[in-house]
Amino acid sequence: MRDAFHEDLDKISDQLVDMTKLVGTALERATAALLEGDRTIAESVIAADDDIDALRREVDDLAVDLLARQQPVATDLRMVVTAMHMSSDIERMGDLARHIAKVARMSAPNVAVPENLRPIIAEMARVGERLVQATGDAIGSKDVYAAVEIGRIDDEMDELHKKVFTTLLGDWEHGMEAGVNATLLSRYYERYGDHAVAVADRIVYLVTGRYGNPDEGLTR
33, 64, 68, 204: least CB-packed within 10 angstroms? Predict the structure, then answer.
């Protein structure tokens, strides 16, 4: 029974890693659709979000089943409970990629992002892809310090978010619609990073039983 239980825990961990791969692909493709004005790619990202939602439901169903049947304690209980929180955050990352794809679809075949913002948006996407890769690795390894590093990567995303607003508050010549799109898109990428950090927090808690503190080199 205990062997089967731990196999199920491993399955949950693997499913969470699979979710990070799906939302990473979603962000990459949504950004391509956005910067290329490609409606077909945008539509495929929107449709593929159903797969992410389905995997989230599988994780949650298995977690609830384990809680009911096995009544886990200590680290095992933290794994089951935090898995449900992590699946929610990762699923939300997929939703944000879908939002980006919807902006791309709405503007296609035109590009929704003015030329002077495209390098910043492209860099936000690259940072987002690093974040989700690091998140998947940290889930798989249960490495506390790898989880903490996710927060440091997210600092880069926050700086890029500020750059978008600096540009918007400067000599903006692209009209209100482009300004609204830029504001929304920047927020979507920034929130994508925030959810990766939320998962990292859960990993720290899973391994240590607490969120850590600066004296330990750990931050929430």
Answer: 68
